[in-house]
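[Backbone geometry]
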Amino acid sequence: MRQDGLTRRASLFLLAGGGLGLAGCTTLSDAASAEGTGVARVYAAPPASVWAIAGEAVGAAGLDVVSVDQARGVVLAQHGPTLISYGEDVSVFIRPEGNGTRIEVVSLRAEAANVLATNWTDPIFEAFDARLG
Protein backbone atom coordinates (compact mmCIF):
# COMPACT_ATOMS: atom_id res chain seq x y z
CA MET A 1 0.00 0.00 0.00
CA ARG A 2 2.73 2.48 0.93
CA GLN A 3 4.45 1.85 -2.36
CA ASP A 4 1.25 2.72 -4.24
CA GLY A 5 1.07 6.07 -2.40
CA LEU A 6 4.70 6.84 -3.20
CA THR A 7 4.23 5.82 -6.81
CA ARG A 8 1.16 8.02 -7.10
CA ARG A 9 2.98 11.02 -5.60
CA ALA A 10 5.98 10.45 -7.86
CA SER A 11 3.67 10.26 -10.87
CA LEU A 12 1.94 13.51 -9.88
CA PHE A 13 5.32 15.19 -9.42
CA LEU A 14 6.48 14.06 -12.87
CA LEU A 15 3.22 15.16 -14.47
CA ALA A 16 3.47 18.58 -12.85
CA GLY A 17 7.10 18.94 -13.94
CA GLY A 18 6.24 17.81 -17.44
CA GLY A 19 3.40 20.32 -17.56
CA LEU A 20 5.78 23.11 -16.69
CA GLY A 21 8.10 21.96 -19.45
CA LEU A 22 5.22 22.11 -21.91
CA ALA A 23 4.24 25.62 -20.82
CA GLY A 24 6.28 26.98 -23.69
CA CYS A 25 9.44 28.72 -24.61
CA THR A 26 9.74 32.00 -26.44
CA THR A 27 12.32 33.09 -28.96
CA LEU A 28 13.52 36.41 -30.30
CA SER A 29 11.25 35.76 -33.29
CA ASP A 30 8.25 35.68 -30.92
CA ALA A 31 9.28 39.03 -29.46
CA ALA A 32 9.74 40.49 -32.96
CA SER A 33 6.18 39.57 -33.90
CA ALA A 34 4.56 40.71 -30.64
CA GLU A 35 3.90 44.34 -31.56
CA GLY A 36 0.73 45.60 -29.92
CA THR A 37 1.09 43.38 -26.85
CA GLY A 38 3.55 45.46 -24.84
CA VAL A 39 3.60 48.69 -22.88
CA ALA A 40 3.85 51.91 -24.90
CA ARG A 41 4.75 55.52 -24.20
CA VAL A 42 4.79 58.51 -26.52
CA TYR A 43 7.79 60.84 -26.38
CA ALA A 44 7.87 64.42 -27.70
CA ALA A 45 11.17 63.67 -29.49
CA PRO A 46 11.14 63.15 -33.26
CA PRO A 47 11.79 59.60 -34.54
CA ALA A 48 15.29 60.51 -35.80
CA SER A 49 16.33 61.54 -32.28
CA VAL A 50 14.92 58.33 -30.81
CA TRP A 51 16.65 56.13 -33.39
CA ALA A 52 19.95 57.91 -32.74
CA ILE A 53 20.00 56.61 -29.15
CA ALA A 54 17.81 53.49 -29.39
CA GLY A 55 20.53 50.82 -29.36
CA GLU A 56 22.47 52.64 -26.65
CA ALA A 57 19.38 53.01 -24.44
CA VAL A 58 18.40 49.34 -24.73
CA GLY A 59 21.98 48.28 -24.02
CA ALA A 60 22.21 50.63 -21.04
CA ALA A 61 19.13 48.94 -19.57
CA GLY A 62 21.25 45.79 -19.23
CA LEU A 63 20.37 43.86 -22.38
CA ASP A 64 22.46 42.50 -25.23
CA VAL A 65 21.31 44.30 -28.39
CA VAL A 66 20.90 41.80 -31.23
CA SER A 67 19.71 44.17 -33.95
CA VAL A 68 18.62 47.75 -34.58
CA ASP A 69 16.39 47.71 -37.66
CA GLN A 70 15.06 51.17 -38.41
CA ALA A 71 13.43 49.99 -41.67
CA ARG A 72 11.26 47.50 -39.72
CA GLY A 73 10.94 49.84 -36.75
CA VAL A 74 12.28 47.46 -34.11
CA VAL A 75 15.21 46.93 -31.77
CA LEU A 76 15.69 43.31 -30.70
CA ALA A 77 17.57 42.37 -27.55
CA GLN A 78 18.11 39.47 -25.19
CA HIS A 79 19.30 38.74 -21.70
CA GLY A 80 20.93 35.37 -21.17
CA PRO A 81 20.22 32.82 -18.46
CA THR A 82 20.95 33.55 -14.81
CA LEU A 83 20.66 31.48 -11.66
CA ILE A 84 16.94 32.31 -11.44
CA SER A 85 15.94 32.74 -15.08
CA TYR A 86 16.30 31.07 -18.46
CA GLY A 87 16.66 34.55 -19.95
CA GLU A 88 14.42 37.02 -21.72
CA ASP A 89 13.67 38.10 -25.30
CA VAL A 90 12.81 41.77 -25.80
CA SER A 91 11.57 43.90 -28.67
CA VAL A 92 11.30 47.68 -28.73
CA PHE A 93 9.04 49.02 -31.46
CA ILE A 94 9.61 52.63 -32.51
CA ARG A 95 6.95 54.42 -34.57
CA PRO A 96 6.21 58.06 -35.44
CA GLU A 97 3.12 59.34 -33.68
CA GLY A 98 1.86 62.88 -34.24
CA ASN A 99 4.79 65.22 -33.62
CA GLY A 100 6.56 62.65 -31.47
CA THR A 101 7.53 59.01 -31.28
CA ARG A 102 5.74 56.00 -29.84
CA ILE A 103 7.97 53.43 -28.14
CA GLU A 104 6.51 50.04 -27.25
CA VAL A 105 8.43 47.51 -25.15
CA VAL A 106 7.62 43.79 -25.25
CA SER A 107 9.51 41.73 -22.66
CA LEU A 108 9.05 37.96 -22.92
CA ARG A 109 10.40 35.26 -20.61
CA ALA A 110 12.42 32.65 -22.50
CA GLU A 111 10.57 30.01 -20.47
CA ALA A 112 6.93 31.03 -20.00
CA ALA A 113 6.60 29.29 -16.62
CA ASN A 114 9.58 31.15 -15.14
CA VAL A 115 7.91 33.75 -12.94
CA LEU A 116 11.28 34.99 -11.67
CA ALA A 117 12.41 36.31 -15.06
CA THR A 118 13.05 40.05 -15.29
CA ASN A 119 10.50 42.27 -16.99
CA TRP A 120 12.68 44.77 -18.88
CA THR A 121 9.93 47.31 -19.59
CA ASP A 122 10.72 49.77 -16.78
CA PRO A 123 14.53 49.66 -17.15
CA ILE A 124 14.20 50.32 -20.89
CA PHE A 125 11.83 53.25 -20.43
CA GLU A 126 14.11 54.65 -17.70
CA ALA A 127 17.04 54.51 -20.15
CA PHE A 128 15.01 56.33 -22.83
CA ASP A 129 13.78 58.87 -20.24
CA ALA A 130 17.38 59.63 -19.22
CA ARG A 131 18.41 60.25 -22.83
CA LEU A 132 15.33 62.01 -24.16
CA GLY A 133 14.56 64.17 -21.15
Q: What stands out?
A: Residues 8-22 have pLDDT under 50 and may be disordered. Residues 107 and 120 are 6 Å apart (CA to CA). Residues 24-132 form a domain with the TATA-Binding Protein fold (CATH 3.30.310.220). The beta strands are 39-43, 64-69, 74-79, 88-97, 100-109.
